[in-house]
Write a structure and sequence with these properties.
globular, eight-stranded mixed sheet, 376 residues
């Protein structure tokens, strides 16, 4: 009798385990397309807008649209110059909450990290003319053209414990700030190497994105298309057609605002790395594992037309950075807003077809990437 009970129990456990494995494979491993909202956000700078914003929100039309690719001249840049940096001070402060991702670092008093009301009315195309050139000029660490300026540098903290890479970016047109999806498909289980997505997208520089395909939560806007807008407790970062960038709690995001304000890209991971005054954040509502020193990928915003990408090596010769350290780095760099993307083994920077950092564990494929491209 006891033997039969134990046998039935073992069988039940095996069947349950098999069911869980199949569930995990279907939802997280096996590639499958996901249903998309599919709303194309009109570019307010375009000469013709056929539909009103109100009509788009009310009808929630499912429009056929996919990620776009830029066009870049076929030139080669590969090497980096080493730069100076700051002191590295370890901190590991956490708030009361937690999240499987970055949680939210914003308070009710500073719900957004942007300064659009005080920004200059000078357009992106006019503001940084001195950063561009009539033709293409390049060297080991920079690329300049009539539309794009990118400089990539390698840095080491003063104590030598951390290595990180900074791409300083100026753009005349925000459509040069692109994103790519693995297999050019919106869904879960699709993964490509960042270097492959960079090459297919003709990217000058590329980093990993928020690994949107690993969850069904949050906001996914890619190249002006709203694919997903599910509730999330994580901070959301939105880049708009006018070049401004906002970081807000997930509860503050609405599809209506995204359309009316002209959202171009949006990511869900986080947390925000600067408060509404562009100052470092010390308390993060995340788990200690997330807050502790890790490889990192993040994007920063100075003003419309001026951005940066940062990748931090970790879990090897370089120690990685805690979230407070990464936050302090972006304050020291003078950014007004900064946002943490997927990290760990995902943290990869590609500069003209070469991986320039030392990814943890050799790196891993991802569902999406952030690209800087030349576009027509």
């Amino acid at each position: 009798m006891k033997l039969r009970v134990w046998r039935n129990l073992v069988i039940d456990l095996l069947l349950t385990g098999a069911a869980l494995v199949l569930f995990a494979l279907f939802h997280h491993v096996l590639p499958r397309q996901q249903e998309s909202i599919g709303i194309v956000i009109p570019n307010p700078n375009a000469s013709v807008v056929e539909e009103t914003v109100t009509g788009r929100v009310e009808n929630m039309e499912l429009l056929a649209a996919g990620p776009t690719s830029g066009i870049v001249s076929d030139t080669g840049i590969s090497l980096l110059a080493k730069g100076g940096s700051r002191n590295s001070t370890r901190q590991n402060k956490s708030g009361s909450g937690s999240s499987s991702k970055g949680g939210s670092a914003l308070t009710e008093e500073t719900e957004e990290t942007s300064e659009t009301e005080t920004e200059s009315t000078v357009s992106m195309a006019e503001k940084f003319q001195e950063m561009y050139t009539d033709g293409i000029e390049q060297n080991d660490q920079s690329y300049k053209s009539p539309n794009v300026s990118v400089t990539v540098t390698e840095h080491t903290t003063d104590d030598g414990s951390v290595t990180y890479y900074v791409a300083d970016i100026y753009l005349k047109d925000i459509t040069s700030f692109q994103t790519a999806m693995a297999n050019n498909t919106y869904g879960s289980g699709y993964r490509d190497e960042i270097s492959d997505m960079a090459r297919i997208g003709n990217a000058l520089v590329a980093v990993n994105g928020d690994y949107y395909g690993n969850t069904s939560e949050g906001v996914v806007i890619r190249n002006g298309v709203i694919y997903r807008a599910n509730p999330t407790n994580c901070d959301v970062c939105v880049l708009y057609y006018d070049g401004t960038m906002k970081v807000m709690p997930g509860s503050s995001f609405t599809v209506e605002d995204a359309i009316s304000d002209g959202a171009w890209q949006a990511w869900t991971f986080g947390p925000a790395l600067l408060d509404g005054n562009g100052e470092a954040i010390e308390q993060f509502s995340s788990t200690s594992r997330i807050i502790s020193a890790n490889p990192r990928t993040a994007i920063g915003y100075y003003e419309p037309g001026h951005y940066c990408m940062v990748v931090v090596d970790g879990r090897g010769a370089s120690d990685g950075m805690t979230l407070p350290e990464l936050s302090q780095l972006f304050e020291d760099m003078g950014c007004k807003a900064a946002y943490n993307l997927d990290g760990g083994n995902s943290s990869i920077m590609v500069w003209k077809d070469e991986v320039v950092n030392d990814p943890s564990g050799g790196g891993r494929a991802s569902s999406d990437a952030v690209l800087i491209c030349e576009v027509n």
